[in-house]
Request: fold
Amino acid sequence: MVSVIGAFCIQPIQMALISWVLHCWHDHRGDRVLGMISLTCILHYMALYLLNININVKF
Reply:
């Protein structure tokens, strides 16, 4: 289960990298919003990942 959630972490990280590149090339407000959304996704999946590790350790 941990590996499944870990696999989901890859997509938001890629989104964050893409939005960062867009931000560097085009300094627009929309790119910053996309970057914040990507960062939120990464933090969300990291939280799920850590929570799942805790569940596996407890049980």
